[in-house]
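Posting for a labmate who doesn't have an account.
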Amino acid sequence: MTWLVTGGAGYIGAHVVRALVRDGQHVVVLDDFSTGDAARVDCGARLVEGSVLDRGLVGRVLRENAVTGVVHIAAKKQVGESVADPLLYYRQNVEGLVALLDSCREKGVDRLVFSSSAATYGLPDVDLVDEDTPGVPLSPYGESKLIGEWMLRACAQAYGMRVMSLRYFNVAGAAVPELADTGVFNLVPLVFQALTSGQRPKVFGADYPTPDGTCIRDYVHVADIADAHLAAARALDAGGLSATYNIGRGEGASVLDVLAVIGEVTGLDTGYDVVDRRPGDPARVVAAVDRIREGLGFRAQHDLRSMVESAWAGWPSRP
């Protein structure tokens, strides 16, 4: 069995590749390096530079490597950027998946693990978000992921493909320091950047209907994300049926909870400034995780402190 991992040189993708290789899987990576780094890719995987939009290249990669399944992670993923340039997101995330599925169908590749997102849910007004919660995304990014799920479901029905869509929540941490998230788009690296630049972290709103007034999210370690992808790949190889799963811990942590743990781990002053809410930020988004536990036998293993400690170990400018 050989798995193609698109976007396998990125933060999440490199962790998935590492998990697959360590499980003994044959892995080939396709990445255009728009955000990925070749140095992240496990030496046990074959690396090909290119885009999923290049149908000829994708077809050759599938054929020459006798690929039997695809883990599709390559995508644009910044909410704000998607609002500013929606066509970029529809081109990369929607057209890219269409091109990939065309190639898979042509080459007889019938199993695919799709990197989806909790952004498909939008503003769910529930304590725990389960997979049947209606998807009402608030950004072109979230829409592109939901459209991707719809396409995969239709292909499964029409062509007999077997697909698993994994909606992950707020990803943090690193399996090893060299794979740490050095982008500054998510809460933990944003706080790290502020602290190591001599600035105070910003808290976007402190008047939400939560115990401490700040947003609550379900934070999940990237190593657990990788293990969930591995579990999905194994299930498909074993003949598993199509399904959609949340990946989270089923527990919420507020922004102030995260700041407190960061202060404990780094020893730095995490005094913060409250600024205006960001448009569209829901007060609470926490995953229901029963379905993935029952369907794939998966349960997240790492707590919030582990996420922060591992992320800090790989932060390039820590004192």
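Reply:
Got it, the structure tokens are right above this. The chain is about 40% helix and 20% strand.
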